[in-house]
Amino acid sequence: MTTKSKCPTTQVVMMPRDTNGMGNIFGGVILSHIDLAGAVAARAACASHVRRVVTVAMKEVVFKKPVHVGDVLCCYAEVTRIGRTSISTHIEVEVNRAGETIPVTEADAVYVAVDENGRPIPVLCATRAARRAKKDARPPKAS
Ligand SMILES: CC(C)(COP(=O)(O)OP(=O)(O)OC[C@H]1O[C@@H](n2cnc3c(N)ncnc32)[C@H](O)[C@@H]1OP(=O)(O)O)[C@@H](O)C(=O)NCCC(=O)NCCS
Questions:
Q1: Assigned domain for 98 exists
Q2: What is the pTM (predicted TM-score) of this model?
Q3: Is 83 in the pocket of ligand 1 (CB under 6 A)?
Q4: Cβ–ligand 1 contact at 122 (below 6 Å)
Q5: pLDDT tens digits along 90-129
């Protein structure tokens, strides 16, 4: 994903309260921002009947570089797959530090659309789901 020309899904300044014993930002704090950014992208991909999504899995989290106090943490989330009730996302995290952009973390996260009782519900409305199923069932065009 090229992030330079895109708007981040979330961005936040890292604060001293979020540091570990080495003075870097806790991995758990970065994870929480990844989770939020993935949820924003997942929610945006859902039909309007979906009021909430919950995280079902965080996968392949790679912390490539440390994050420092004062860094602007930018999460770029994109939807990679829409299932029946689940939405898969990929999140790339960069920091802006003194004018420099540094890729620090990336992760895959999966969300599930749920009703008010926390039960999975379809991501898409019936019409869109039927249109998509029809498209998926079409044989590939001969080249
Ligand atoms: C998310 C939750 C509602 C799913 O309930 P469930 O009964 O396991 O639902 P299902 O087995 O029908 O799976 C629902 C979807 O999630 C997907 N899924 C389930 N476990 C998964 C996993 N480990 N990795 C990826 N996808 C997964 C299924 O493939 C299915 O997708 P599809 O409908 O697109 O094919 C339930 O597990 C839950 O409440 N978990 C806790 C959520 C939570 O508290 N998150 C943290 C705070 S947001």
A1: yes
A2: 0.89
A3: yes
A4: no
A5: 999 999 999 999 999 999 999 999 999 999 999 987 667 6
